Structure formats: C-alpha cells, structure tokens
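Input.
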Amino acid sequence: MGFLEELFPMLYFGRMKGKTRIFSESVLQAISQSMATTSCGETDLENCRDDSAAQILKFVAIAAILVAGVIGVAIPLVGKKRRFLRTDGNIFFAAKAFAAGVILATGFVHMLPDGSSALSDSCLPKYPWSKFPFSGMFAMVAALATLVVDFVGTQYYERKQERAKASEAQVRPTERDGIVPLIEAKDPNVKVFGEEEGGGMHIVGIHAHAAHHRHSHPHGEESCDGHRRDHGHSHGFGFDDDDDEEDGGIRHVVVSQVLELGIISHSVIIGLSLGVSQSPCTIRPLIAALSFHQFFEGFALGGCISQAQFKTLSTTLMACFFAITTPAGIAIGTAISSFYNPDSPRALVIEGVFDCVSAGILIYMALVDLIAADFLSKRMRCNAKLQVLSYFMLFLGAGLMSSLAIWA
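Output.
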C-alpha cells in the first residue's frame, strides 16, 4: 500500500505534465501556422493579374487620394475665415454630420467585416481562430481603450488649463491697486450645490460652481431664447459661457488627436492592401472609393482640428500627416509587393487585427465624439431646421459610404 500511495502522485503529475506539453505544443503550432508566409490557395483575381497596368493605376491612386485628402482636410481649415464655411455655421454643422456618417459606415460596413473575414479565413488554423469571435473582441477592446485615452486626455488638458488659470489669477489686480473684487454674502444655513457639511466643495462633473448656476437656468424654449429669469444677483466670475467654450475647446483638442490616430491606423492598412495588389480589377474601384472616403474623413478631421484652435504649425503637421498616410501606405505596399504575400496566414492575421482595431476606434469616435456631441447639443435642440438637415446628411453619408462596399 505504501508503494501504491507513493506511485499515484507520480502518475498524476506525469499525466498533468503530458497534458501541459500537448497544450503548449498545440499553441506553438497554431502560432507557427498563423505566422506562415506561404500562399494559401489561389485567389479569384489571379486571372485579372497585370503587373504593368496595376503599376500605372497605383500611381493614379496615389495622386487621386492625396488630392482628395488635401482638399477635404483643407476646406474647414481655410474656410473657417469665410462666412459660409465657418465652424459655427449651419452649413459646416450639416457637412460635419455627413462626414460623421461616412466614418461610422467605414467602421461598421468596411473595416469590421473585412477584419472578421480575414480572421475567420479557412487558411488560418481552426484553433484558436474558429473557436472564438476575435474580430468583435478586438473591436471592443479598441473602443474601450479609446474611451480611456479620451478620458485621460481630457483630464490632462483640463488640469493644464487650470494651472494656466491659476498662474493668470496671481497677476490679476487686487485691493492694492484700488480694485476690490465683488464677494457675495452667503447664508451659513444654505449649502451650495456640491457643498459638503464642513464647508468644502465636492466637485461634481467638471465645475461644481457652473453646475449650480446651470441648475437654476430654465430649459426648453426659454433656454433656447437665452432668457435667464431666475438670476437675482450678478456673478463675480464668468463661469457659464466661458467655461462651456473652454471645455468644448478641450474636447476638440482630444477628439481631433484620437480621431487622427484611428484614421491613420486603418489608412496604412488600406494603402498597403492596394499597394501589394497586382490586379487592376481590384485597384480600379478602390481609387474612386478611397478618394471619396479620404475626402470626407479629411473634412471631419479638419473640422475637429479647426475647432480645437491649434497653432498654425500643429495644424499644418496634423493635416499633412493625415493627407500623406494612405498614399505612403500605397507606396510602401508597391515597394514590398515583390516579396509580400497578401494571401499568407501572417498577412491575414495582421490585416484582420488592424482592421478590427480601426473599426472599434472609428465607431467609438463617430458615435460618441462626433454624432452624440453635436446631435445632443443645445444648438441642435433649439433649431428644428438644423435637426432635419443634419439627420438627413448623417443618414446620407452613412448610406453612400455603405453603398461603396458593393465595389470596394
């Protein structure tokens, strides 16, 4: 019995060790198969292969997409000084809604299905790619990561702005200059919105003071008309409108940077995919589709950059970086097309992951930072004609961009 009691643990340990070895070998085999560079089957477009014609079309694509991107991103930046294209005008508002629809359709109809198709391709090993919906998971993780970046970026710029305000307040005139600031008397038995028992302030949202005064403002038609009947005193500080504008400026700074990150991440993949293709049947429809896509993505990004009010150098760098990304991807794809195999498992995994990540970023940015931010604003609520026009342009942009999936 003593011998058997000693033998059982050894047998159990040997069985577990064997299972661990088999599992690790299967994982390594799946990784090796997923990273293979050999071609997996023949594509349907091999009969349309023409290297010389494809090379000419690639140069046409670089020029057309570059021009479309430059024009799209430049219109809001140059037109902000023109009356009909100012960023606070209704025309710009409606055009931005159209561009938001284009970006939303790009994420849902183009990038996410392409990523799902690549990651579920029969060339990839069944384990793990067929056992779990990786495309949805990658898109979800990307959207949540964008939320975190959005939040952290907003917090960073808010704190930076608060420090700048504090430094400005130190050099403002005081009683020494004969100017006495107006201080309101406060009833000790009445607590301000956000105030705690000890007299301290509990910050709710971004500005507790602003939230308190907005709380007493009328809503609906009266607030749209700009009437503030509940005010029985004057403010010593301009928190309401100024803070709204400053908070909006911070949001535009963060939105423009995160949006450019999402657009660039999928523009590189799109450019590479077009550049490595040697089929004119694939490239021709992509030229028109990507030019249209690049123009309106540039318009949306240019609008966010314009509203963020960056310095001239930063604005120029962001606009140029956007405009050259897809053409640069096409050029790189053309250079590596001789040894890059787009039908290999490695290419499918890389493109699938990038497509899904880009889809998550674009879907989040379109829904949260472009559509929700504008369509839930006071300006939209107070203008029925603008509501109808913006919704029409939103659905038109999404519909037209979705229809391009027929050709590309």
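The chain has 13 helices and no strands.
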